[in-house]
Amino acid sequence: MTADSMDKKRGIYIHMPFCVQKCRYCAFLSFSAEGSPRKEYMDALEKEIKLRSALERERGTDKPADTIYIGGGTPSVMDIAAMSEMIKTLKRSFEIKPDAEFTLEANPATLGRKDGVMLAKLQAYKFMGVNRLSMGVQSMDNDRLHYLGRIHTAENVARDMEIIRRKGFSNVNLDLMFSVPGESTEDAMRDLERILALAPEHISCYSLQIEEGTPFGEMAESGELTEVPDEEDRETYHRICRRLRDAGYEHYEISNFAKKGDDPAATSPYRSRHNSLYWNMDEYIGLGLGASGFINGVRYKNTSDLEEYLAVLEEGRLPVAEEHRNTAFDNISEAVFTGLRRREGIRYEDAVRAYMDAVDAERPEILPGDDFRDVFWDIFAEAREEALGYAGRGLLIISDEGLKLTEQGIDISNSIMSLFV
């Protein structure tokens, strides 16, 4: 293991693929919890935790985890006792830092219909170590929620947030979706104001993406659904960005905003530490159906077939379906692609160090003392002229330290990022 990889942070992602029902826009790996083998899944997940932990120790790549993130699906539909046992197994198998960020995704109306039930469930989560909740709100308009296929109402969101605060959770993210067909920019701004009234520490804002294989995808293909025009989508996005900045939120990643702390000049303490691992090229272990991981330069992905996942773990094997050792170019390309998602952008030094972390025999002439800017543009020589063109149009900032997108550049971020892939 290189010195650079020793310095990397480590996260653990755990996938729960079950939901009350599938939303009309959802292309994620999830399916209805009703009739699904949830107990068998949790038993298999505990086996995977033990096997992955043993493998990391055997390889000498085990290290303390800075974050835990349980996503889905809808983790809050899972049985509390089974979740608790799984977390106990996780903590026995992996070292978790005392100050680790521990996020649980939850959907409104799945934490408990009665106040007492919800309070007990939240207490159980706190006992497990959960200190951050991420709520899939999407909209505060009941007609829009129904159209999206969500099971909750705006009233559920307000009530859940009140109980969450009463239980002492002080780090909550709320997701907001905009550019829903039939929704105007003014509709989206009214949604945002109702979200702001709940004073979450973090807000994630995404425009609806119509995906193949979803009900919305089929509706778009048949002409039953018309997507919001790009110009209107971008107008909405920029108005959301301005409003959130005015409300005291730090825009630290294309879709993510964190409330500023006591020192407005300092980095927000409410940035998602786990998601930042992905954007910083740090390491993470993926556990569960379809989960991905990145450990010691190797990317892997678990099988997405539930029957296969259960069967393979019953045989005592890890359910890895794909594995790829990053080349030096993979590393630097991914570092730039993910780094440009951050509003501060990517430093040449960080990009080149990512390259060098896998360099060994490929580019032995590149040494840490070299000028990182020159090394960077040597690697991306073919992209430089086009990058300068974007800079000249006010879409990309190229400095002596690195690269970052302007707010206007975010609108064509995929085109700019593709220069470095």
Uncertain spans: 1-6
Please identify the top-level CATH class of the largest domain.
Answer: Alpha Beta
Structural class: alpha/beta
User: What is the CA-based Rg, rounded?
Assistant: 22 Å
Order of adjacent strands in the largest pleated sheet: 9-10-8-7-6-5-4-1-11
DSSP summary, beta strand count: 17
Summed up, the domain count is: 2
Distance between the termini: 26 Å
The backbone outline, from C-alpha atoms, is: globular
The amount of beta strand, in percent, is: 15-25%
Considering DSSP H and I runs of 4 or more, what fraction of the residues is helical? 40-55%
CATH topology descriptor of the largest domain: pyruvate-formate lyase- activating enzyme
CATH superfamily of the largest domain: tm_1862 like domain
Biggest sheet layout: 9 strands, mixed
Can you characterise this structure?
There is one protein chain. The protein is an alpha/beta fold and 421 residues long. The protein has two domains: 3-279, tm_1862 like domain (pyruvate-formate lyase- activating enzyme), CATH 3.80.30; 346-421, Arc Repressor Mutant, subunit A (Orthogonal Bundle), CATH 1.10.10. The chain has helices at residues 3-7, 38-59, 80-93, 115-128, 142-148, 154-166, 185-196, 215-222, 230-246, 273-279, 306-314, 328-339, 348-357, 372-379, 381-392, 407-410, 413-417; strands at 10-16, 18-19, 31-32, 65-72, 96-106, 132-138, 172-178, 202-207, 249-253, 256-259, 283-287, 292-295, 298-302, 320-325, 346-347, 396-398, 402-405. The chain is globular.
